[in-house]
Amino acid sequence: MIRAGMKWMFLIIGTMIGAGYASGRELWQFFGHESGLAILLFTIFFTVSCHVILSISYHKQSTHYLPVLQTIVGKKLTLLYDGMIILYLFTTTVIMLAGSGATWQAFHFSYWVGIVAIAIPLVLVFVWDIKGILSLNVVILPLLIGGLLYVLILFSVQQELSIFSHLEEQRNWPASIPFTALNILPLIAVLGAIGNKLNSKGEIWIASVGSGVLLGSISFIYNNSLIQIADDILLYEIPLFAILKHYPYEMFLFISMLLWIAIFTTAASGVLGLITRFRSRLTGPLWLLAFGTVVLMIPLTSIGFSTLITFLYPLYGLLNLYVLSCLLLYPFSNRYKS
């Protein structure tokens, strides 16, 4: 049960930690100064949301997200939010591809080399169906989390930062709501595809609580580090590189590799949500469906990484507020119905 729960926990984290989050751009967009309480609230909201989605998915034994979405928002709004999820997964996966291009640019490669470098393995991982993504997450995400925490904690120690300073200044707490809402739709899409693979409620508790606490802790430490380099962030497409500028080149190379892997796992989760949604209507193996999806996305990556995040992420966060409220109220409304 613990092993299975950890597997789903890494799937959740892999969906969450992508180009926007791992680079620091998404965190800085929503949090920044006076955000300790906001990150705590995000941890609670995120944990509850994951538990509700997984519980519904387990109960429905779903193979794609539509039955889960219908339970959350009701039959009347399912069509609207189904369209939103499709659009969300498509555009945010485009953001992941653009993030790969931006990462390779940091090493003086062509932007399009970075796009091709992620597109090819993104198709190949689906040769092994869903098992390919699950196996990949279990191997690389502990490495990613460990590497990211190592850099952030080392930076905090070297700068002699006080992690719990300014606790009395928490005026940015409302940011927790749109930030959590932003990440709800991909979770519904991905976790709705694994309902028939969940075996117990214990797995659900391990996955939801584990992912919430881990992401909340990383977010708090990461945000605290970004506050110290607030002036430098404007000069960098990827804020994490502003933290790394004083480190040896080998560290820069290692973290850049992990950042690219984070981008890849989230892109894979986005493609998974899309192709499982249409799998019943389209014939052919998953890798072929993934190939067609990625080919459609590539031309849109020319818009640019930070531009996409700046305009699309806050918009999606606002649109998803209703879904988040349904998820947070679900345990109470479901008990009343029972």
UniProtKB/TrEMBL annotation:
Transmembrane recorded as keyword: yes
Protein name: Membrane protein YkvI
Lineage start: Bacteria, Bacillati, Bacillota, Bacilli, Bacillales
UniProt keyword annotation of Transmembrane helix present: yes
Keywords noted in UniProt: Membrane, Transmembrane, Transmembrane helix
Organism whose genome encodes this protein: Pontibacillus salicampi
Transmembrane spans: 38-58, 79-103, 109-127, 134-155, 175-195, 204-222, 251-274, 286-305, 311-332
